[in-house]
Specification:
The structure is a single chain. By secondary structure, the protein is an all-alpha fold. Helices cover 58% and strands 2% of the residues. A two-stranded antiparallel ribbon has the order 1-2. Helix 1 (6-22) packs across helix 3 (47-60), helix 4 (67-83) packs parallel to helix 7 (149-159) and helix 5 packs across helix 7 (149-159). The relative contact order is 0.12.
């Protein structure tokens, strides 16, 4: 993979996996070649994270993540992985039990406390295989607040540990 064409590689893999999913292979057991796994590792992704976006794209159609959204989210993760983590994976995993409840709210915004933790886990490559950044609950929050999941990740990155900046972005949509 060439750094200038990683997005093309992502797109081609996504489209190939969508065809496999639509053809009935919905478990992704045989989706990835060793080269695919190397590619995903190079952008800080796991095969499960990639699968989640393809699976939701196929299952939920217009309500699911588009290829473009999936690519933009991957771009933020890739940048963070390379710039902040120096292409070294975190050894930590955030288990679902450490996520705030789905009903948790801050400043009247239900789901936001959970989403902040998930966004940080996504950035740091610490997502549990049973958790997805950009799941249906996340998408509903983004839709309601007119936010893009990739922008939310970038704001989370820029905010560091300052939840107030993330909350302000969720309220106003301004970075």
């Amino acid at each position: 993979m060439n750094d200038l064409t990683w997005d093309t590689s992502f797109r081609e893999l996504f489209e190939r996996c969508v065809k496999l999913h639509q053809g009935g292979d919905t478990r992704a057991v045989n989706w990835y070649t060793e080269a695919d796994k190397t590619f995903l590792d190079g952008i800080g992704y796991t095969p499960q994270e990639f699968f989640d976006f393809v699976d939701d794209h196929c299952r939920y159609g217009a309500e699911g993540p588009t290829l473009e959204t999936s690519l933009l989210v991957a771009a933020v993760r890739r940048d963070y992985f390379r710039v902040v983590q120096n292409s070294v994976r975190s050894e930590k995993t955030v288990p679902p039990s450490e996520l705030p409840p789905k009903t948790a709210a801050v400043e009247g915004m239900t789901w936001l406390p959970r989403l902040i933790v998930k966004a940080r886990a996504k950035l740091q490559g610490e997502m549990d295989p049973d958790t997805m950044y950009g799941c249906g609950g996340d998408r509903a929050f983004f839709e309601e607040h007119k936010l893009h999941p990739a922008d939310f990740l970038r704001v989370t990155w820029a905010a560091g540990d300052d939840d107030k900046k993330i909350i302000e972005f969720a309220k106003t949509g301004k970075m």
